[in-house]
Specification:
The chain is of the alpha/beta class. The chain has one domain: Metallo-dependent phosphatases (Purple Acid Phosphatase, chain A, domain 2, 4-Layer Sandwich), CATH 3.60.21. The chain contains nine helices and ten strands. It has a five-stranded mixed β-sheet with strand order 3-2-1-9-10, with helices on one face. A five-stranded mixed β-sheet has the order 4-5-6-8-7. It is globular, with a radius of gyration of 17 Å. The two termini are about 30 Å apart. The relative contact order is 0.17.
Amino acid sequence: MKNEFFVVGDIHGEITLVKKLLEHWNSQTQQLLFLGDLGDRGENPKECFELVQNLVQTEGAICLKGNHEDMLINYLENPERHYANYLLNGGIKTIQTFLAGKEMDKADDNPEGWAKSIKAYYPKLLPFLKELPLYYEWGNYLFVHAGVNLMKSNWQDSDEQDFVWIREGFFDQPNNTDKIIVFGHTVTSMLHKNRKDTSIWDSGDGKIGLDGGAVYGGTLHGVVFDKEGMKEHFSIPK
């Protein structure tokens, strides 16, 4: 295992930003880790999924499952039941880019057909998504998409939904674990309680938020951690 981690916040389809950010990644010395939410909204979700999938396969990168990966899995497996929720959360952009960017009029909605086509054209996508881990531990660090349930005596008892969806019950609770928890999901401007502040959020008790809301005009963050703490920080503004 390498001695440093290069951790990337929520991308949400912003392919140009993530490519610029990865120019700072040293593949020889740094383990690359994505906190999830690769697609939905943004510039080109398909390219983001393909980029990260390739990095996982060829460079040993780690990608955690985010709530948007969870919603995409649900949509692909049961489009009739899950399409409406996926649509509300920016999924139409992902569908469009996977289906050659074709403009799809709402009057011609065919969510079942679209899901079938995506699975046919990209047969490795769904297996890749279903294999994504919920969290990754490294020394005293815990990397996770949304967080853990800090209202439970043992964070490992968190439900699967907690790892990818939790907000309250995590960021608003004291961190009494022995872990530094690095997470995405909740945009840092919300954590700072200042919509203009998209900088990294540090709770002061071992919770570090990296979702700078890039897709909303904020910032894509990449942070280098070593065993001593945060070593370097790179920010690519939208």
